[in-house]
Design brief:
This protein is an alpha/beta fold. Helices cover 42% and strands 13% of the residues. Strand 3, helix 6 and strand 4 form a beta-alpha-beta unit. 50% of the residues are buried.
Length: 413
Amino acid sequence: MQKEFYRIKRLPPYVFAEVNQMKAEARANGDDIIDFGMGNPDSATPAHIVEKLVESVRNPKTHRYSNSRGIPGLRRALADYYERRFGVSIDPKTEAIVTLGSKEGMANLAQAITSPGDIVLSPNPSYPIHAFGFIIAGGVVRYLPAYVETPEARRAFMAALQRGVNHSIPKPLAVVLNFPSNPTAETVDLDFYAEVVDFCRFHEIYILSDLAYSEVYFDDSPPPSILQVPGARDLAVEFTSLSKTYSMPGWRIGFAAGNKTLVAALARVKSYLDYGAFTPVQVAATAALNGPQECVDEMRDLYQARRDVLIDGLAAAGWEIPSPKATMFVWAPIPPSFQEAGSLEFSKLLLQEAKVAVSPGVGFGEYGEGFVRIGLVENRHRIRQAVRNIKSLLFKSGVNTVKDPNAMCAVAE
């Protein structure tokens, strides 16, 4: 029996699948692929967090079912983090919940609050779950600009919000925000959040903010939380994660904090779906939030150094790319000579000719076309090798401004 399932029909073919298949085939053939494709931290989880996991797992009592909302100690640790980092007091009992990563949290909240036909406003390009979580839940997504760093771009964003309200029946249910952004690395200030909160409060629209990259920043202005805006908790919930901050992607620990109604809705759905993360993982996550934070500073230094090697090296090769102020990603406009080919074909070319894997921008939405996302998930030696390979490809294609394709700039070395 063959049947097309309703929700599966709503999901387009996964754009990254073709590149991933090529990558797998190349490795099977013995090619050394430098993989910038997935935002998958390559550093070890800090030792004190691992040690706390080992200590906890030795206690047989921790092997039983856990708590779907998250153990109380971890929710308190999240509340302490918000107080310490943002000056925001949240109630760990009613305004915080532990999720199996921020991705799972966003998807389950979409299931909790979305009725068939509900309209959600989401950035494009964006991390796929921001839109497809609601599409899977039966909702309809209308897109917002993902670029807001300039005054003109911010005005365009607010105008798009207004159009989303004026031309949507029913009125939009929620607005999704993600700053620092995956994939664009855009950042915002608190004034932007305040403007969006005022708009959404007037129109009675929920705000779902993804703050997974709150600690991956490279200047003296730490990214703010939308919950710092007075009254934001009346309509906003925010998702955070330990994946990038503490190099814990496989541990699958994240959080939602903010509006009590949204947190309760997420808790209700999760109570039917899971028993929470393995208790020792939650105990170790508590140690991460409550323990020494030098490892977070080291994480920032690591990604900043990698960013600088990549940006400076590619600039010397003739590929000028804006340097991101935050996240572990570089959002790179395709060199003009390759624009006509598009992001997917350019990604395939980099893989075939330079042995470098990146993510095609179109995989993050149609407005991501013209870009590729480069993850800073290889060490500096590997980044230098990638720069050399890309430089050679650009030179052969007539793009490279350096006469000697084998020459490396001093900064990259």
